[in-house]
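Q: Sequence in, structure out?
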Amino acid sequence: MKNKIMTIVGAAALLALAQTTQALPITGAIGFAGNANLNTGTASTATTVVSWSGSTTANPVVQSDSGIISSLISPGTQIVFAAPWNFTVSSAIIPFWNVLGTPGINFQLSSSSFTRGTLGGNPYVAISGTGLLNAPGYDATTWNFSVTFQDPASVPANQTFTFSASQQSVPDGGTTVMLLGAALSGMALIKRKFMA
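A: Exactly. Output:
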């Protein structure tokens, strides 16, 4: 009887371990647009975003989204960005952006780098990096992002920046296979105990 109880307790522990290690990453992609007030009159020399706004709203807005993130944030939702932001310095910003009126959904910038260039004679600066996207009920998920700032005179609809982000694919590392193997071994032991 004692062996049966120990076997059942062991199987329950394995099942509990398998349940607690299931990850719920935030999948998908998201894009924002709006205006960025830079510290100079042109993207070719700017180093800092002084403030952010939308084209027709107080804050930048979501333009597109897909995957799980689309069930959390809808197009047209306003996003509040951290300001001032010196994009020439790669440092963590917590939070870098958050959803207006929805606590808990935010993006923590971890690292970034920037490049400058011209396209069709118009200067731009592009920043790319990584960070953690957080939302209630989901695991903090690593996402890649890019932001592009254009000169105001060179873009239509008075939008001076675009922001896009998507989930970074991370390999499993074998944890799931290990847990599945442990659970199957536990089940085989239970079957062997009951057959004996």
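The mean pLDDT is 82.
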